[in-house]
Here is the input.
Amino acid sequence: MELELEPLGLPSDLERPIVIAGPCSAETEEQTLKTARQLAAKGCHMFRAGVWKPRTKPGGFEGNGEAALPWLKSVKEETGMMVATEVATAEHVELCLKYGIDIMWIGARTTANPFAVQAIADALQGVDIPVFVKNPVNPDIELWIGALERINGAGIKRLGAIHRGFSSYDKKIYRNHPMWQIPIELHRRYPNLPLVCDPSHIGGRRDLIAPLCQQAMDMGFDGLIVESHCNPELAWSDANQQVTPDILDYILSMLVIRNETVTTENISTLRKQIDELDNQLIEVLAQRMKVCREIGEYKKAHDMTIVQTARYSEILGKRGAQGSLMGIGQDCVKGIFELIHEESVHQQMEIVNK
Ligand code: PEP
Ligand code: MN
Here is the structure.
């Protein structure tokens, strides 16, 4: 389905990047206003703060709810910044409208639930407000598009997407794996849909914010939504991934903005997809070698030989057949697995001879 879009009408529409900054949560009136004043002083035009917080486990700070909405209203009145918050239910939408919230976003956990998204869409019927849809927690582009379609179907034309990475069982560098190929594909399908990157939730760590912002700019993203707190270490939620307004200003000032848009016609975009896939290949290989070393420990403990010929033939046969089914030459796959096997044996030798 086509999306019917209009410009977001945000302060930096003509200038990349759009920047939305503010704390993960509006904790107290003082913290909210203090952070907002510092951000406004750095020239920030859009302020974010979570009022309803979806927490993985009960017992954490779940947001101040309606009580925090007047604080956002004060931010708007005092600093002139537009204010944004996350909505997860129809009631949240109604309250945001009541308190004059300027921008709403749908969080990753909500995007994954079509019933919840539809209820939000119904509440937005007839309203003209910019809405951002975060990607679902799971790497499913159709679910992301489905949520965008539901919101757009309610008449929201000032629509944008936020890439905040995808959760995985196996946490590596990132809190949420970026899987850049997914937002790139979204952009290929909807070139006019503004795309914003959330480096705080992708990285989960302050020190990853700057490189992720640069990476997003290099890929032609339209904007950034970054968690910024007047005292990040003491934040009540997501303390590790927030930076002070000062640091954020520094990070933004160091960004190199290249005027290159993301299109598949564009060779450099295709190369970035290749880089991301190669990166995944190496990560998977490293994981495989780790398991091989564990097998090495087992073989050592049980006095087994390192090379088990029958198992090796089974792997070559099975993967060769899989490769040809997937359009890769059987010999190529065989060659790759011979090399992988050689390295696996080498890694196991090191364990056994330790
Ligand atoms: C947030 O923006 O604070 C948040 C909860 O994000 P996400 O939905 O991406 O986890
Ligand atoms: Mn957060």
